[in-house]
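ARCHIVE CARD
CATEGORY: sequence design from structure
SOURCE FIELD: tokenized fold
FIELD CONTENT:
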């Protein structure tokens, strides 16, 4: 079993995240725009959760392919 500190969790800092309306809807539905009470909660439930939601949506719906195809 891995130590939690050894887990790799990809995420993009919120100050550099850019997306289209599809991506915006994905992170909005994931609850990433809530008001968080602590810095850590904002990082985990905002930035990390947004990155995970976008990554999962790209895997689940092949959004990256669709984006490249129709751009």
């Amino acid at each position: 079993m891995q130590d939690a500190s050894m887990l790799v969790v990809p995420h993009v800092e919120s100050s550099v995240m850019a997306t289209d309306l599809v991506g915006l809807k994905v992170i909005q539905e994931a609850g990433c725009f809530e008001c968080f009470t602590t810095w850590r909660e904002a990082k985990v439930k905002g930035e990390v959760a947004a990155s995970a939601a976008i990554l999962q949506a790209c895997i689940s719906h092949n959004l990256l392919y669709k984006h490249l195809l129709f751009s």
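CARD ANNOTATION: The helical segments are 21-29, 39-61, 63-70. Residues 18-70 form one domain.
SHELF: design records, drawer C
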